[in-house]
């Protein structure tokens, strides 16, 4: 814009792209699902008929320089229908678009359901629930304890990361040094070892989602660890360090939960089954932070529609708020 790069955030809040499954009648192996990511995930944005009827009098988008190879021209990289749509949302012309990062998401809104309105059915509960409850807990810890907060010597942080599901190896992911640089700046101004001393006194909750025991697949869960809906935030434990919880960090969280009357549950994956992981072990090992891995219980994790319970949202907010308020005193009481 005016020979300057301008960054704009665009959210097309309506369904514009579709990726239909092949009808089961055409499947040679009906009980087997296979997906070729290159051939089977091409989205449909418009039909040729509708596109032809809606063409503007100007015709297809093209570079104003003709056949000149302009590095900023992406007209030949994307269909004109898509570029026109994005340009309209961004308030510019298709020729103004230099580059873009686009992400598809399920447009179907989240719904509350069940006979007693106790369930939330939605896309991306993993991990927007953790993001929302962590930030809400931080805010509540300040607004509900403003008197104590005025005398607070500790720094309260809610940190949200991108790209966790594909390895966290990005500038905005948990594997980057961004967190360390921020914490170092916060600790600057003291002694040369102020950062290291602060890390030794710090504590982190890794708030990702957790698995509730599935009533239709009881053999997938360890017999003595079957978290339930409405039972409280779930603490995740794994001896192979897929989760960062230790006996010490679990005990600290238990004490905080006791002080705030917040229920807790625990999950341990069966020894004969693989275990997922979170950003907890990444941050804990890179920074040397005491960490406990927790999450709200849910079913159908990583599905296009996931399921959780309404009470878990309030339970998580209450626990995280209590964590911010009570952690200093609990750590001081450790002997």
From TrEMBL:
Enzyme class: hydrolase
Pfam families: Peptidase_M18 (PF02127)
GO molecular function: aminopeptidase activity; metallopeptidase activity; zinc ion binding
Reaction equation(s) it catalyzes: Release of an N-terminal aspartate or glutamate from a peptide, with a preference for aspartate
InterPro entries for the chain: Peptidase_M18
Record carries keyword Isomerase: no
Keyword annotations: Aminopeptidase, Hydrolase, Metal-binding, Metalloprotease, Protease, Zinc
Gene3D superfamilies: Zn peptidases (3.40.630.10)
GO biological process: proteolysis
Entry's EC annotation: 3.4.11.21
Family the UniProt entry places it in: Belongs to the peptidase M18 family.
Listed name of the protein: aspartyl aminopeptidase
